[in-house]
């Protein structure tokens, strides 16, 4: 009996070892393909052909060592339209303090469009001169350098929600738009619903400020969903969406540095917001007019956070 048992045990061990080896090879192949997909997506996101004017936006800042700033742009590009920035958020990060500040800029703010010699809504800067003109305009009003940018085609990007599965946000006010209703409380959103949720403006008594709040909520909800273990099986689809709808100037090595930095940051973000300005109609158009003292105070706040000598 013993002589007959040993060959069976050896055969079983071989089968087990073969299955384990096959599994490891499959994981390695998947990991290799995923890394390749990630690299290709980053290459597409880093492409600056869309900038025009033969300009490249390059920063030598080391995000894991030096304070730095990022301009987040949510771009609303529709058919037969050059596009406008629906969302403009300035983020400053101080690695030593392990702190983050986030400032939303009203899209209707009346400012000088740097390089275009006009005074109009800040969200027109993108239509006039793309990302370079938008960055120059933001730098001018806040008196800080913009080191990095991340520009997102919102309509395309929100496809990522359909890849991840619905996301949940805590809606603080009853809202409706056409056939869509968003009751107060926890709301589950697919990609199409999320796009409408972030675009609602006139139905919200807070106007643009309410929309800014919902956009931040959605970004946080997507980030939370993306950290779930099930996301690992969807990475290739996620990279495809990012590559097609996101543009940025973070080099590959800085992305790895950011990953390490994120784990050390205080996740309680200091939210800054313009609250003292006034709405004013000029030549039939409605503008947000900054309160000059508030603008100066916010500028000083960001300069201190970036350790810029005032």
Q: How is the main sheet built?
A: 6 strands, mixed
How many individual helices? Answer: 9
Number of domains: 1
CATH superfamily: LCP protein
The averaged pLDDT comes out at: 81
Share of residues in strands: 15-25%
Structure description:
The protein is an alpha+beta fold and 310 residues long. The protein is globular and about 85 Å long. The N and C termini lie far apart (89 Å). The N terminus is likely disordered. The strands form five sheets. The chain has a six-stranded mixed β-sheet with strand order 11-6-1-2-3-12. Strands 4-5 form a two-stranded antiparallel sheet. It is built from nine helices and 14 strands. The longest helix is centred in the first third of the chain and has 45 residues. The protein has one domain: LCP protein (Aminopeptidase).
What is the compact description of this entry?
The chain is α+β, with helices and mostly antiparallel strands.
Essential attributes:
single chain; alpha+beta; Aminopeptidase; two-stranded antiparallel ribbon; 24% strand
């Amino acid at each position: 009996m013993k002589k007959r048992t040993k060959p069976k045990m050896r055969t079983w061990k071989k089968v087990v070892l073969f299955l384990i080896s096959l599994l490891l090879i499959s994981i390695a192949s998947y990991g290799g393909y995923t890394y390749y997909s990630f690299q290709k997506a980053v290459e597409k996101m880093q492409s600056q052909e869309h900038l025009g004017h033969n300009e490249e936006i390059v920063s030598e800042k080391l995000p894991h060592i030096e304070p730095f700033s990022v301009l987040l742009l949510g771009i609303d590009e529709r058919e037969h339209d050059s596009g406008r920035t629906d969302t403009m958020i300035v983020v400053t990060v101080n690695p030593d303090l392990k702190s983050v500040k986030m400032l939303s800029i009203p899209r209707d703010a009346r400012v000088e469009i740097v390089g275009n010699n006009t005074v109009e809504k800040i969200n027109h800067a993108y239509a006039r001169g793309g990302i370079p003109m938008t960055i120059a305009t933001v730098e001018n009003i806040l008196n800080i350098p913009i080191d990095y940018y991340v520009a997102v085609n919102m309509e395309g990007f929100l496809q990522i929600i359909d890849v991840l599965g619905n996301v949940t946000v805590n809606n603080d006010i009853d809202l409706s738009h056409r056939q869509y209703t968003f009751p107060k409380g926890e709301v589950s959103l697919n990609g199409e619903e999320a796009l409408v949720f972030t675009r609602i403006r006139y139905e919200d008594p807070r106007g643009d400020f309410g929309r800014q709040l919902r956009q931040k909520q959605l970004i946080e909800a997507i980030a939370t969903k993306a950290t779930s273990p099930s996301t690992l099986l969807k990475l290739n689809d996620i990279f495809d969406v990012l590559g097609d709808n996101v543009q940025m100037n973070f080099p590959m090595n800085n992305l790895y540095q950011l990953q390490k930095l994120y784990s050390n940051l205080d996740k309680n973000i200091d939210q800054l917001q313009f609250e003292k300005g006034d709405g004013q109609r000029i030549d039939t158009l409605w503008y947000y007019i900054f309160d000059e003292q508030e603008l100066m105070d916010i500028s000083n706040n960001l300069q201190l956070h970036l350790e810029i000598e005032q």
